[in-house]
Each structure stands twice: as structure tokens, then as C-alpha cells.
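Subject: two folds for Thursday's group meeting

Dear M.,

Sorry for the delay on this. The cluster queue was jammed most of the week, so I only got both jobs back this morning. I'm pasting them in the order they finished. Each block is the input sequence followed by the predicted C-alpha cells. Could you check whether the formatting survives your parser before we put anything on slides? The first protein is the one we discussed after the seminar.
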Amino acid sequence: MLIDHWPVKGLSVRSPCLELRLPSEEELAEVADVAARGVHDPKDRPFLTPWTDLPPTERARYVVQQHWSRLGRWTPQNWALELVAFFEGRPIGVQDMRAVDFGIRREIVSGSWIGLNHQGRGLGTEMRLAMLHLAFEELGAVSATSMSFTDNISSLSVSRKLGYRPDGITRDVLHGKVVESQRFRLSRKDWYAQERPPVTVSGLTGCEELFGIGGREQARGMA
């Protein structure tokens, strides 16, 4: 079975309203359709990689190719876990976390998007919270980072709400103009400083090697 060779396929993270996991091919097509219907107001440009500027058909194809590409390039030293978020059994967006040399650095960086029709209900915050639980509680992360354009109020608010602290400014070029992003960092200490909603993780056993760590108890002990 595929899960014998790729145990991350069986990983599931459940929060009060959501389930985060890898999708089937049919579910991947469905979340691509969500992206095609819109991720943000057309006048906004919240991503440094301007994939949402693409026409709907190409936008959907980008989501599919990005998912396949990240799985195909995965190594224990450099991985990107792209989890689809399911609400009431249907895909609503993607929550990812990425790491380089996680077994040594114990640091992840995350990104996400959620369909426009599902925004404004706290689901984006819950997606990130579920991902952070996986990182800190199960994989033994010592810090998590995130980055948003300085005018992306909703994303900045999620980071602040979850306890991230400012971690400097990054300047990049988008469409020939300089754009500034606010970096944020959430330490393990600040993660535990707040009471969090319940999250459960299943299917992690057997995945540790792919994340570049030993067993779960070793992951927790090294953090």
C-alpha cells in the first residue's frame, strides 16, 4: 500500500472545526476548484509569489502542481508539508509548514490560503493553530516563523492573536516595486504561554524519519 512507503499519507490533525491532512487526487482537484473561485479580493495582492494573479484555470493548475512538486522534492533535510484543510468534510484551503534541517534547527515556517467564501469565520486562525500544535507538541519544534506584507491586516492579526512576536522586516520586489513584509516568530515558551483549543494528531507513527527526527518521545525530549 502507498501508506507503507509514504506514511505521511496517513497523518491527520483535527481541531474543533477542521481536519488537516494530505488530500486524495479527487480532493486535490476540489481544493484547486476552491482556489479558482477566489482567495482574496481582486484588488489585493497578499502573496510574494503572485499565483493568485493567474486566470482561474491556471490558478487551479498551480495548486495541483505545487502540491505534487513539494511531495516529489521531499527529503528529511528539506521538506514542505502541504495539508488541505477540511471543514464539514469539504476542502476549504491549504495550510503548509516547511523546514530545512529540522532535525537540527527545530524551526518551521508556515503559509496558508483559504477560499474567499470561507473567510471571516475564524477558520484561517484555526488552521494555523492546528499546524502549530503538530509542530510544537508532536514534532518538537522550538520556534515557528511567518511573514506577511505589512498591509495584510488579516494575516498580521492571526499572528498576533496566536502569540507571535515581531522579528524584523524583509524587503522584496513584486511586479517591479519594493514590497515590505513583517516577519513574526513564535517561540516554544510563547506557545505554552496561552491556553489553546484541543487538537488531536493521528498517524504520526512511522513519519518521524521523513521529518528528520527520531521517535516522538525523542522529538519532545529534544525540544
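Second protein, same layout:
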Amino acid sequence: MKIKLNGEYKEFNKDEMTITELVKELGIKAPNFAVAVGMDVIPKSEYDTFKIKDGDNVEIVTFVGGG
């Protein structure tokens, strides 16, 4: 599977994967992040079931606090 992730193409040895699987594969440990696939922001409640497929455009944004 090949997707566009935050503007860069990435390849994975799967035909599809959930957002949760993708986040684990990428090693994202930030507690607060948002995911959009195409133009749709995916609710956190769907991360375990939403399937990312070959050719999808995925954006993952992490939030950083500070003052």
C-alpha cells in the first residue's frame, strides 16, 4: 500500500490498515493528535475501525502545548 502522508509518499507491506495501526507503525507517541484522510477529519472514536487504503492522502497533526 502506498499513501501520501503529510505530503510525502510512504509504502507499507499491507493492503489496508486502520488509523490505530498506522499510528503504531509510525511510532507516534503524542497523546493529542488529529488525523484527516482526504478532506475529512476522522473522529478519534473511529481510529480503530477506519480503514486507510492504497492511494489515500493522510495528514496527521500533533498538538504541542506551551506558553
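Two things I noticed about the second structure. The beta strands are 2-5, 8-11, 16-18, 33-37, 40-42, 51-53, 57-62. The chain has one domain: 2-62.

Cheers,
T.
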